[in-house]
Amino acid sequence: MQCFRALRFFSVWSQVPMGPADPILGVAAQFKADPSTTKVNLSIGAYRDNDGKPVVLDSVKRAEQIIKEKKLDNEYLPVEGLQSFIDASIKLGYGDAYYAQNGKSIAGCQVLSGTGAVRLGFEFAKKFLPQGTKVYMPNPTWPNHHNIARMAGLEISEYRYFDPKTRGVDFSGLVEDLNKAQNGSVILFHACAHNPTGCDLTTAQWTQLLDLTKKKNFLPFFDMAYQGFTSGDVNKDAEAVRLFTAQGVPIVLGQSFAKNMGLYGQRTGCLSFVCANQQEKDKVVSQLKLLARPLWSSPPLHGARVADIILNTPELNQLWLQEVKMMANRIQLMRVSLANTLKSLGSPHDWSHISKQIGMFAFTGVGPEHVKELIAKYHIYLLSSGRISIAGLNEGNVKYVAEAFHDVTKNTKL
Amino acid sequence: MQKLQLLQNQFNPTSDDIFFHIVQAPPDPIFGIANAYKADTSNTKIDLGVGAYRTDEEKPYVFEIIKKLEREVVNDPTLNKEYLPIEGLADFNKGCQKLMFGQNSPLIASGQIVTAQCLGGTGALRVGFEFVKRHIPGDVYVSKPTWSNHNQVIERAGLNQFEYPYFDPKTKGFNCAGTIECLSQARMGSIVLLHVCAHNPTGVDPTEAEWLQIADVCKKRRLVPFFDCAYQGFASGCIEKDVFAVRKFAELGFQMIVAQSFSKNMGLYNERVGAVHIVTSNKDISARVLSNLKIVIRTICSNPPAIGARIAAKILTDEKNFNAWVEELKTVTGRIIKMRTLLKQELDNLKVPGNWDHITRQTGFFTFTGLTPEQCDLLTKQYHVYLLRSGRMSMAGITSKNVRYLAESIKAVVQKK
């Protein structure tokens, strides 16, 4: 057996370079390792209550009770997942009226949360759209959008989105870029609560984009990870999706229940395609299954069961809507609190964008150097892009955070 | 409203039906059969299609220990629903390493095993092959035959695949000489996909001596072993014995990949519980490998589902739970072995033409019966016995009540001219 020992010295993996740490989850890991008692985690997009604790919604707990009492088995889900969950998810996303009319021609598939929706959606696009079709993404976007598009073999282009001067949307730049895009391109839109900027489009702006979409035959891919979580109203948050579908524009919709149901680690999501009719929908579902089978065979059940029970039990659905509104309200409160506190500290900068932006994240405007100082001196963890997760703020730490931001920015430009 | 929509589609160039050209995909060879079985209204129907365990009452089975631990997990007030790390639950990963490589494997202590929690066996395979594609791209050799999803996973990962002649239809056993010959022609650095035990679909496993021959050719041709382990505990009934191949290859110094599934042996099918292991030569390389494994996982699911792994971790890290699980597994495996014996007896009693020794010789969930596709079609259409057209039968679907009818149906199709 001595001859085999030589195998250890020859490394099969010697060419493997160190891969870059994930920009978001890497910071969270840094935070975890920090022993400081005043540390604040403003990096990861997970909701925290006013005590800084993760929350398991009451509606979720009650749904889990119901599941426990049913004594169900653990058999494989079909490749496409739990059908009643898929139907309920589609209804939530597209609205009752549209669903009643067109539900039969919406192809849906349960997926591994928002990430899984984007991955499966992009793989489908790569396989079935004409070769060379590009996907246009807002600049900036969630970094994982780029990674997934690359893995799926899709060519990426960007459209201007965030204007660092106004700290709002550069809409004329956006329109200019999309006008120049190839006809038939896939356009990735954040349905609401744009990540990382928190800057959303107005109804008038969405209407303009709808016209552009029709003119250029774009395929809109809505990534909706914050329905309900944004304004507190699930219908308002899905406005863009419903605006497009009401006009008969075929869209792709990725839905995540990580944030709005607090089902983060259960990986619960839905991917859907608006098709021309039921026959086409059947074909699309069959092809989605063909792609899902070699990714994960079938999706995990638990989170989908919970979401299904919540969405389909009127009492629990009502409770959930209240809970998601409460989370959205607390976030809004913290935005205002941070912006006002900075103002009252006499900051030379205009921080109103923090209260104007919406959703989980704020693009504060601080740069990488500020971020380094915030981490090293104040143990406040945020991304080097200046993105903070508002959910990490609470009445206990918002003053500390405001003071820290004031301190590192008072003598600099923003 | 619909008519208007159709008109719009016809005349409005901006509503081009972008999905019009899409054709119906064929049903999955395995799940498709499960669907057909479900739709069948006959009261003599037998489901021998999908590899999911059934009790003697034809019911799915939830391990008692799993039920207990599931309650614990769901009721634990200290647990929340937060994201797991990209690579999954640390306790679970450690437990998987010990189960696969041995409690006291020196490779664990030396940090040479990189482990990430994955979405069942499929997830582990896909992550493993995506990693291969990015870092050690080479041809992949798969057994002929193999689990149908293997081919799809490898194809989606963008790798070329070739077959090695695994099953010998004449002996209905493992074609060792043919396999060795084929692999000795493989390009250096190719990857070989090996089933650790209870080969799917044939039920035929190499002997320990034959495994050493496979190790030898892998060493000579610098082939990278990629083990798929979905049935630890289901082959011999002994969890250590079943992973002999992985532990032997590890002992022999191989760097390799292992995909591990808990779908069957913990009955955690729908919670997608699995792990991928990559064995390296030292812990510095392990760190680099892990960082790249995380990049692959991030683009499929970001991080894995928590609940199944929490339940499995309670089994893998607690001696009492572990022993309870092993006992239940022995009972479950025992029933499958008993069904093999019963079926063979019935076939012998009925004097069904042919040699049916392989039914008791093969191990695990499946038997490669040797029935032709046409015979399988007839079995299904006329006798409502559902199996794969390859002749693969899931023995877990046989019960003391249906075994005679099954034997009679087999006799009927075998004797039909």
Structural write-up:
The complex is a heterodimer of chains A (414) and B (417). By secondary structure, chain A is of the alpha/beta class. Chain A has 17 helices and 13 strands. In chain B, α3 crosses α13, α14 crosses α17 and α16 crosses α17. With 417 residues, chain B is α/β, with parallel strands linked by helices. Chain B has 17 helices and 13 strands. The longest helix of chain B is centred in the last third of the chain and has 31 residues. Chains A and B meet through α1, α3, α6, α7 and α9 of A and α1, α3, α6, α7 and α12 of B. Chain B: One of its GO terms (molecular function) is pyridoxal phosphate binding. Chain B: Belongs to the class-I pyridoxal-phosphate-dependent aminotransferase family. Chain B: Pfam families: Aminotran_1_2.
CATH class of the largest domain in chain A: Alpha Beta
- Compute the CA-based radius of gyration of chain B: 23 Å
Helix content of chain B: 40-55%
Instruction: Compute the number of strand runs of chain A.
Output: 13
Spatial strand sequence of the major β-sheet of chain A = 2-10-9-8-7-3-4
Secondary structure elements and their pairing?
The complex is a heterodimer of chains A (414) and B (417).
Chain A: H1 2-9, H2 25-33, E1 40-41, H3 58-70, H4 83-94, H5 96-102, E2 106-112, H6 113-128, E3 134-139, H7 143-152, E4 155-160, E5 162-163, E6 168-169, H8 171-180, E7 186-190, H9 203-216, E8 219-224, H10 234-237, H11 239-246, E9 252-256, E10 268-274, H12 278-296, H13 302-312, H14 314-344, H15 352-356, E11 361-363, H16 368-378, E12 380-381, E13 387-389, H17 398-409
Chain B: H1 2-11, H2 31-39, E1 46-47, H3 64-75, H4 90-101, H5 106-109, E2 113-119, H6 120-135, E3 140-144, H7 148-156, E4 161-165, E5 167-168, E6 173-174, H8 176-184, E7 191-195, H9 208-220, E8 224-229, H10 239-242, H11 244-251, E9 257-261, E10 273-279, H12 283-298, H13 306-317, H14 319-349, H15 358-361, E11 366-368, H16 373-383, E12 385-386, E13 392-394, H17 403-415
Parallel strand pairs in B: 1-12, 3-4, 3-7, 7-8, 8-9
Antiparallel strand pairs in B: 2-10, 5-6, 9-10, 11-13
Helix pairs in contact in B: 3-13, 4-13, 6-7, 6-12, 8-9, 9-11, 13-14, 14-17, 16-17
